[in-house]
Structures are given as structure tokens and as C-alpha cells.
Design goal:
alpha/beta, four-stranded parallel beta sheet, 8 strands, 28% helix
């Protein structure tokens, strides 16, 4: 059983509300096995569309540890929404016995291995998103669509 970033299955839940992240490998996989779509940002209470968000001064693990914050392009602190969405995603994983999460690469919630650097310039840094970090801490394997 796997959880999957809903945007990768074509759900229009990204910050801009456009369904451009659909991944055909995952759509095909969904015909053979059960995939549970989740959008941690929506689960945390953020609407769609919404201003883009990036982790400021650290990684998702640092947000989980309350060492840094997630802010949107307008400067609003959305850390609590990200943490709530990560916790809800972890709860859903537990309810379904999901041992893996396929997240959207680069996402401040779902990214694994790299995220944007917080400058809103498109620059990348090594690190994981908030949800990815929390899931990994709880023994759930996290990969991105690039790892399929």
C-alpha cells in the first residue's frame, strides 16, 4: 500500500491549481495496485490556489523540530499548516498500513532529496519537505516520482 502526492495523479491541488504534475507511470500503477492520494498542504488547511511556499533557512526536518519556518511568497508563516498536513498524512499512512510515500520532487511538503532554497528564485538545496521528513522519521519509505 502506498500514499502518493495527489498532484502526481492529476489532482489539481498544487499551489497554482494547475494539474501539470500528473505522472503517467503512477497513473498506470494505480490500475494494478491501490494508491492513496494525499495533499498534505490541503490536509493542513491551505486552499488551492495559494501563494507558493518555501522552507526558510533549513529543511523539512528543521520545520518538524521547530528550528525554521515555512513562508509563502507574501511572507505569511504557514508552518502550522504544513505541520498539521504532515501529521494528517502520517495518520492516514497508519490507518491504511502504507509503508511507502511517493512525493512530488522539490515540494516543501513532499520533496525528498532536494527542495527549493527559500529565496523563491528557483535555486535548490539538499533536503526533504516537511511531510517527507515526518514520514521518514516514522519508518515510512519516501521516494519521488523521479525514483520510479
Amino acid at each position: 500500500m502506498r500514499l502518493v502526492s495527489a498532484c502526481l495523479l492529476g489532482v489539481r491541488c498544487t499551489w497554482d491549481g494547475i494539474g501539470k504534475n500528473r505522472n503517467e507511470k503512477l497513473v498506470e500503477l494505480s490500475k494494478r495496485e491501490t494508491l492513496i492520494p494525499v495533499c498534505p498542504e490541503q490536509l493542513g488547511g491551505l486552499g488551492t490556489p495559494r501563494p507558493p511556499q518555501e522552507i526558510q533557512g533549513g529543511s523539512g526536518a528543521d520545520v518538524v523540530d521547530r528550528k525554521c519556518r515555512v513562508r509563502n511568497r507574501d511572507g505569511r508563516d504557514v508552518s502550522q499548516e504544513f505541520l498539521r498536513g504532515a501529521e494528517e498524512t502520517l495518520r492516514i499512512a497508519g490507518l491504511f498500513g502504507a509503508g511507502q510515500f511517493v512525493g512530488k520532487s522539490g515540494s516543501p511538503s513532499c520533496g525528498c532529496g532536494w527542495i527549493y532554497d527559500g529565496s523563491f528564485s528557483g535555486s535548490q538545496v539538499d533536503g526533504d519537505g516537511v511531510t517527507a521528513a515526518l514520514l521518514m522519521r516514522n519508518g515510512i519509505r519516501v521516494i519521488t516520482e523521479e525514483d520510479l
